[in-house]
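User: Quick one: structure for sequence A, then sequence B.

Assistant: Sequence A:
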Amino acid sequence: MELREKLRYGLFGAFLLSLIVLYAFEFDWFERTINFPVLAGRSLLAGLLAGLAWGRPYAREQFGLTEKIQIYVYFCVMCMVFSPLAASLSNRLISFAEVRKVTVDYVSQEARYVSRVGMLKGEAAKPTGYYLSFYYKQKIRTIDNPNPFPLDLDRGDETQLRMQRGLWGFDVVQRPAVP
C-alpha cells in the first residue's frame, strides 16, 4: 500500500471517529430539543434521498443488479446514520434566532442518580442531574437538566425557560434552562 493511500484511509478513519465522538456529545442536545423524534424522522428521510442521489453515479457504472443494490444500500445507510447528527447540529448552531424566555407550565422534577461504580458504603446519594417536566405547546415535555429547578413551584405554576428557535423550526432548551 502506498503512503498516499494509507494517508487517505487514515484521514477517512479519523474523520469517521470524530463524527462518532461528535455524535456522543450531541446526545445531550437531542434530549433538549423539543419534538426531536419528528426532526430525526425528517432527517432520516432526507438522508435516504441524499444516499440515493449520491449513490446513483456509482451504481450506473455497475452492470449487475446485486452490485447496484449494494452501492445504493451503502450510500443510503451511511447518509441515514449521520443525518440526525447533521439535523441537530444545523438546527442548533446555524440558528439566527435569539435566545428568548418562554413561559411554560411546571409539571415536576425528578432527581437522577448515575454512577459507573456504584455508591461507597455509608456515602449519601447525590443527584447527578434532574429530569424537568413542563407543559409546552399542548404536550408534556421532559428534559435532562444538570441543575435543580427552584423547588418552590407547584404543578401548574408558570415559569420561564431559556429557549432558542432552531434553523428547522424546532425549539432547543438552552443551558442553563433557568433565566
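Sequence B:
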Amino acid sequence: MYKKKSFRFLGLLLIILPSQLFSQNFSNIKLFEQRDFGKYFLSDMYSPNTESNLGFGSLMSDYNLNPDRNSAFALYIESVTGTEIPLLTWNIAGPNSGSKLALSVPISVSLLLDFTEPITHPVINTDYRLGVLEINYLHVLNLGFVKNASISFIPYFHESSHIGDEITIYRKEAGFPITRVNATSNTAEISLTINDENGKQETNHSFKLGTKFLYNKSNGLYSMRGAEGDTSKLTPSENRMEWYIQYQWHGPSELIRSPKFTTVFSFEIRNRLRYNYPYYIYNPASSSGPLEVNPGIKHVPSVNGYLGWRYRIKDEKASYLGLYLRFYLGINPHGQFRNIPAHRFYGLSMVYEM
C-alpha cells in the first residue's frame, strides 16, 4: 500500500510542477553539479553531511564493553561520512528563475566509537544509508515573510545497521538473551520546506515538516535469527511511520565579523518509533545475569540541536564548514539500540556541508 502511495505521489509531483516546466530552454540543465537549494538542515538525523562529533553520551549495559566503569556517561566519537551525488540541476526558466529542480543520490555511513573504554576503544554501531533517488523542487513566492517553498521526495531509502564485533562477543559471553538484531529497513520520505536558504547568506528562518514511512509491513524494521538470540523477545512495531519538524536560523555573526561567517541555530523534534524489544541492565558481580527492561513505550519525542558558526568556503555555491555545540535528547538513534528510550549526548560537532 505504501509503495503504491509513493509512486502516486511521484506522479502528482510531476503534474503540479509549473506548466512552464517543459517549455523552457533545456540549456539551463546541468549534469553532475551540486545544487544550492534544498539542502539538509544541520539537525536532520538522516543528513548525509560529513561531520565529526566528540562528546559525552549515555553509557548503557547493552553496549558497555567494560561494565566495571561506574559512570552514567562515556566519551564517544560519532562520525558521519556522506555526500549527495548530484545527477541533474535545472534553473527552469534561466539563471534568475523562480523555479529549480534537482536530482541527486544521498549516501552516508554513521559510526559510533566508545573513546573511553581503555582496552579496545570499540566500535559500537555502524549505520549504512542510501537513497536511490532524491527529488528536490523549489519555487520562489515572495509573499512577505514567505520567500519560497520547496518539496523533497525520496521514493526509496535503504538503511542497515551492524554492531561492532567486540560488542557482539560481549553480549554473547555475558548471556544477553538478545545478542544481535538485524536492523534494516526500506522507507520513503517526503518533506515540505518554507523559506529554504536557497544558497543565500541573508538572515533567514527556515521551517520543514516531513515524514518517513516503511514500505513492507511484513518485514518490519528489524529481525533476528535464532542463533543470535531468543526470537520470542522481538515483536513487530505497531506503527511504521515517523514525522519530524525542523527549524533553522542563520544570520550575521556578532562574534566573528566577516561576511563569510554566519551564526546558525538548527533544531529538530522527531517522533521516533521505539523498536519493540527489551533492553538490559547487567551487573557482572550478580549471578542472576542481565536484567530485562521493557518499558512498553511506542514512540519517543527526540530532540536534536546545533548552535555555532559556519564559514562559506565557496562564493558561487553554498558550501560550508562549521563548528557547533550539539545536544541530543531522546531515543538512542544508533541501529539496534533504538529500543532504548532515554539517550543523551552533549558535545562539539564539526560539519562540512557540500
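DSSP finds two helices and 17 strands in the chain. The chain has a mean pLDDT of 90.

User: Thanks, that's what I needed.
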